[in-house]
TrEMBL record:
It comes from the Bacteria. Residues 8-117 form the Glyoxalase/fosfomycin resistance/dioxygenase domain. This is VOC family protein. InterPro entries: Glyas_Bleomycin-R_OHBP_Dase, Glyas_Fos-R_dOase_dom. It comes from Enterococcus camelliae.
């Protein structure tokens, strides 16, 4: 059976830069390893989160698994305070979409330093 714990692999140009970006948004580092001379970092929104991101250098994936190197996941986060998260994003040097109101929720998208897009929403 599949457990509730999940890891999403993100392929980035620079693991250190990506790690610093996610830490600026409040993520914590769960684990750091070296694999064939490249750093692999596992991060999560909190120590006890069930979903973690694992950051891999894109060049490493292009070498060892070229068939998946250009895949980007579509990830949507949820938050209780989207306005505070929006203000935090605006302090970073990344692209941030407009905060929009849907029927019973607010939504916005943003890009990480590698140009991968994410969405985040909150329910009213």
């Amino acid at each position: 059976m599949i457990s509730n714990d999940m890891e999403i692999m993100l392929y980035v140009d620079n693991v250190t830069t990506s790690k610093m970006f996610w830490e600026a948004l409040g993520f914590v580092t769960i684990d750091v390893q070296e694999l064939d001379g490249t750093m692999v970092v596992e991060i999560a929104p909190s120590q006890d989160a069930e979903v973690h991101f694992v950051l891999y250098e894109r060049s490493f994936i292009e070498t060892y698994s070229p068939e998946v190197a250009t895949n980007s996941p579509s990830v949507m986060f949820q938050t209780k305070n989207i306005e505070a998260f929006y203000r935090k994003l605006l302090t970073l040097d990344v692209e941030v979409g407009e905060l929009i109101q849907l029927d019973d929720s607010k939504l916005l998208n943003f890009a990480d330093p590698d140009g991968n897009y994410y969405a985040i929403k909150s329910h009213n």
